Amino acid sequence: MATSIAARISRKAAASAFSAHRHVISSRGFVTEAAKTISPSSDRVKWDYRGQRKVIPLGQWVPKVAVDAYVAPNVVLAGQVTVSDGASVWNGCVLRGDLNKITVGFCSNVQERCVIHAAWSSPTGLPAETTIERFVTIGAYSLLRSCTIEPECIIGQHSILMEGSLVETHSILEAGSVVPPGRRIPTGELWAGNPVRFVRALTHEETLEIPKLAVAINDLSKEHFSEFLPNSTAYLEVEKFKKSLGITI
């Protein structure tokens, strides 16, 4: 009796071992066949998705960056975006000009994690482009959409400027300010709050400090700029000029 039970157990063990061995062989064969079937062809385009695209052309629109402008490596510029001479766009910013133009003027700066966009049209009838003129400082984490900022202004951190809003020259918005659509901030004034309210008029000395801040940030950007190879779109103009002359080199 014990001998027959031991024999049955040994036969079952042998059968299970054989089936496991056969499963391993078949799985190895499946892996081999799968590797053969998914192997890429030699003429397949090899895309590299490890890096973030910094400049994104949209149709005929290619972002333009001046030779001496500083744009951080992880900034995204898409579509109708122009970064002028001496301007700087810092880490994590997104400038999306897919619907309308975005301009960052001479010696202006857009600090970390700002988002700038432009709508097709403004409900107020004002220009829908987003224009940042010269010597303007945009504080970190701000949101700008279809607004105009005249020369020598400061926009505090975490501020929001909605469609059609206008910040006139020599004005300051405190941190966290929210400018509703179509709101005008008169020249030489300090505004704050949600929605923004008039606080007081700026002194002459305070207005003189506004461009100095922009220049100081421009000087700081040169230290960062020296760590990277020059990156601009000036070569596109050179290539266009060569084509107009019939030069193929």
Automatic annotation (TrEMBL):
Q: What is its main location?
A: mitochondrion
Q: Which family does it belong to?
A: Belongs to the gamma-class carbonic anhydrase family.
Q: Where in the cell is it found?
A: Mitochondrion membrane
Q: In terms of domain of life, where is this protein from?
A: Eukaryota
This one is known as Gamma carbonic anhydrase-like 1, mitochondrial
Q: Which organism is it from?
A: Hibiscus sabdariffa
Q: How does it sit in the membrane?
A: Peripheral membrane protein
